[in-house]
């Protein structure tokens, strides 16, 4: 079982991923614009349908744009009369802008690509999940290879 933060700003909001010999179970909160909590998504995928697990970095454009706009607005407010408002807007802009930098675990299952997204500082957690998935896939391959060998031997004995 893996628990990790899914938001830079709301770091206490966690996702949960379970990897076992039969399935990958993912429970993640939904986030609007990358930082506003809005529900939860659950996904159960059979481990033998998963392929190509990988971890990569990505940048979400909308939170980055909102962060830049709020930062600029805050700077202009600080130059004018609203020092307190400017500082608040600048801090919020920086936090939202930083939340645009993300790590993602992606994998293919049943012909679709799925992603589990986390803040950039959670990349090691996603890498641990990827390794766990890969370990399960390797075990399945070994079992399948052993069954194939047994079937081949049985076929040759029957001849």
TrEMBL record:
<keyword id="KW-0812">Transmembrane</keyword>
<protein>
    <submittedName>
        <fullName>Uncharacterized protein</fullName>
    </submittedName>
</protein>
<feature type="transmembrane region" description="Helical">
    <location>
        <begin position="59"/>
        <end position="76"/>
    </location>
</feature>
<feature type="transmembrane region" description="Helical">
    <location>
        <begin position="82"/>
        <end position="101"/>
    </location>
</feature>
<keyword id="KW-1133">Transmembrane helix</keyword>
<keyword id="KW-0472">Membrane</keyword>
């Amino acid at each position: 079982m893996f628990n990790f933060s899914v938001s830079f700003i709301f770091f206490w909001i966690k996702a949960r991923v379970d990897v076992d010999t039969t399935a990958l179970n993912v429970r993640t909160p939904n986030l609007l614009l990358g930082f506003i909590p809005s529900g939860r998504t659950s996904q159960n995928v059979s481990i033998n349908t998963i392929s190509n697990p990988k971890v990569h970095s990505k940048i979400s454009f909308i939170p980055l744009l909102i962060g830049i706009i709020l930062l600029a607005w805050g700077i202009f407010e600080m130059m004018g009369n609203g020092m307190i408002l400017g500082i608040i807007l600048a801090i919020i802009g920086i936090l939202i802008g930083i939340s645009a930098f993300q790590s993602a675990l992606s994998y293919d299952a049943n012909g679709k690509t799925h992603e589990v997204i986390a803040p950039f500082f959670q990349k090691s957690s996603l890498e641990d999940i990827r390794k766990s998935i890969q370990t399960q896939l390797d075990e399945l391959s070994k079992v399948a290879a052993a069954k194939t060998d047994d079937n081949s031997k049985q076929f040759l004995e029957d001849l």
